[in-house]
Amino acid sequence: MVRYLQMARKKAREAIIETELVFAYAKVNRLADLEEFISSPNIAQIQQVGDRCYDEGLYEPARILYNNVSNYARLASTLVHLEEYQAAVDGARKANSTKTWKEVCFACVEAGEFRMAQMCGLHIVVHADELEELINFYQSRGFFQELIQLLEAALGLERAHMGMFTELAILYSKYNTPKMREHLELFWSRVNIPKVLRAAEQATCGRNLSSFTTNTRSTITLSRP
To answer: What is the Cα–Cα distance from 147 to 139, expressed in whole angstroms?
Structure first.
């Protein structure tokens, strides 16, 4: 097929011929020929071929093609499939879209690459409407401490919002009770107090409920000026 398309291209410079030639190079894994072709003047539909390669699981040629057309969102997604997580984070940074940050973050969590997951997560938690999904993703997989570390790292961000401080307090109430007091003393004005109290009560599951709730309320009261 490659030879036939090469001959056809000599007779007619048409987009469909060049597009199919690019896909043929990808299909037979002639990556050097693929790179040489797309780096020279051509009228092939590179994005289209990249999508076809991605859909067929041809991730190496897809990476080359997406990089050529600077489609960093699809490049990051492709790199996730290739398990090249650092490069995927770099691609997400260039794409700079919440959707891409989430895709790479969740893939890194699944792979146990928590340092890189946190790098992505810092770009997600600043969006209040995205916070719940991220928290549920971590918690459903049992990564409570990694989630706490992510939110702790995010508190100093310029775009830190009340939801972050509140959810971290709730996490402390579930998984690290001693730190909740310190957190409330420092950030009581940035926490949704009723929500934290409800979560704190639920976290006790009826065990020492009255004492725990009383101590929590006392901490909040004493923290206020």
So the answer is: 8
Q: What is the per-residue burial (b if ≥16 Cβ within 10 Å, else e) of 75-88? A: bbbbbbeeebbebb
Q: pLDDT digit string (tens) for 63-86?
A: 999 999 999 999 999 999 999 999
Positive or negative CA dihedral for 62, 65, 68, 74? negative
Q: Exposure of 120 by Cβ count < 10 A (0-12 exposed, 13-18 middle, 19+ buried)?
A: buried
Q: Which residues contact 81 (CB under 8 A, 6 or more apart)?
A: 57, 59
In the structure encoding, which two tokens stand for residue 58, read together? 């041809």
Angle at 77 between CA 73 and CA 78, to 5 degrees: 115
Cα gap 208→184, rounded to integer Å? 20
* Sequence-ordered strand ranges (E) for the chain: none
Within 10 Å of residue 70's Cβ, how many Cβ atoms?
9
Interval 27-53: pLDDT, tens: 999 999 999 999 999 999 999 999 999
| Helix boundaries (H) for 56-143 | 59-68, 72-81, 85-95, 98-110, 114-121, 128-140
Answer yes or no: is pLDDT of 128 > 50: yes
Quick one: which H or E segment has residue 2?
A: helix 2-11
pTM: 0.86
How far apart (Å, rounded) are the C-alpha atoms in residues 182 and 178?
8
Q: How far is CA 191 from the centre of its chain?
A: 26
